[in-house]
Design goal:
Layout lengths: L9 E5 L4 E5 L17 E4 L17 E6 L2 E6 L10 H15 L6 E6 L4 E3 L5 H5 L3 H19 L4 E6 L2 E3 L1 H7 L3 E5 L3 E3 L13 H9 L1 H10 L2 E3 H7 L4 E3 L4 H13 L3 H33 L3 H12 L9
Parallel strand pairs: 5-6, 6-8, 7-9, 8-10, 9-11, 10-13
Antiparallel strand pairs: 1-2, 3-4, 4-5, 11-12
């Protein structure tokens, strides 16, 4: 598995029934830099997610197209539901890092290839079962760091949801400023069915997007909702016909980017500053609880049940 151990240090401790894990402090990763060239496409490889090794390398699995003043990042793994893996996530993070320092790019679109999937996220039960708990925690830590960096980009970011969006992909979209979707799209946060909860931002970002009640219903039930419901509760701003989402996102991005960058970037900074104090507290709680949950019996049972195709028997420990 190509995941560098995070700079986070963890402290394990036990009570009579559970073992927990909590971060002692924030970690930082140094990631490599690569140059972007005007109108060029930069590609990033990925690993086969079930085995987390270097086989089946696909250099086109993630690409960025720069057409100033707009950049478009496309997750291109249609045969794997446009799902991330640790290597692909790191490369996504490098793209985000480069965009942060760009003076030519004023709006960013993130989408998935094709019309079936935006993305299936970071993991599913089969992938999760093939990883150690430390690997899972490292992956979640990286996801949080990179999605935080995405949210902190000075440019306006748009998630163009062109099909199903599941689990960690929903959390990526929530780190974007604007979300639009195809009228055939659907949303699901299934982690509670696996004994966990979304660990890369949904518990603290989703309530800001759709409100407390809708957010908790989606997270606690793990149910799938269709595009009309995504629009009704405010997860997305607009719906577009299938096959038209990419064009709509590009048009929106260019409308935004045609305006004064000092104005759009300044407005984004103000909006984020208003959210920041509560966000930090919620984020710290999410990190602590998510890390602790990884060592719970319920997570082990949820993953096993999903793999075996049976109802989970949760015990709350």
């Amino acid at each position: 598995m190509c995941v560098c151990s995070p700079d986070h240090r963890f402290q394990r401790f036990s009570d009579t029934t559970n073992r927990f894990i909590a971060p002692l402090g924030p970690g930082r990763h140094r990631v490599g830099r690569s140059r972007f060239h005007r109108h060029n496409s930069w590609t990033a490889g990925c690993q086969e997610t079930a085995h987390m090794n270097a086989t089946d390398f696909d250099e086109n699995a993630l690409r960025i197209e720069l057409k100033p003043p707009v950049a478009t990042i496309t997750i291109d793994r249609p045969d794997n539901e446009n799902r991330f893996d640790p290597s692909l996530l790191q490369r996504f993070g490098k793209m985000v890092e480069e965009l942060r320092n760009s003076s030519e790019i004023h709006a960013v679109v993130i989408t998935g290839a094709g019309d079936d999937w935006f993305s299936a996220g970071l993991m599913n039960p089969a992938i999760r079962a093939a990883m150690t708990k430390d690997e899972v925690i490292a992956y979640v830590v990286d996801g949080n760091r990179i999605f935080d960096e995405l949210e902190a980009l000075p440019q306006i970011t748009i998630a163009a949801i062109n099909g199903k969006i599941v689990a960690g992909a929903s959390e990526l979209a929530l780190a974007c400023d604007i979300r639009i979707a195809g009228d055939h799209s659907s949303l699901m946060l299934p982690e509670a069915k696996w004994g966990g909860f979304p660990g890369a931002g949904a518990p603290h970002r989703l309530p800001m997007a759709v409100g407390h009640s809708h957010a908790l219903e989606l997270i606690a039930t793990g149910k799938e909702i269709d595009a009309a419901e995504m629009l009704r509760i405010g997860f997305v701003n607009h719906l577009h016909p299938q096959g038209k989402v990419h064009a709509a996102a590009d048009a929106l991005a260019r409308t935004i980017a045609a305006n004064g960058p000092l104005a759009t970037r300044g407005a984004k900074r103000i909006a984020r500053a208003r959210q920041e104090p509560g966000f930090r507290a919620a984020r710290e709680m999410s990190d602590t609880l998510r890390h602790a949950l990884e060592w719970s019996h319920d997570v082990d049972e949820g993953i096993a049940a999903a793999k075996e195709g049976r109802p989970a028997k949760f015990t709350g420990r």
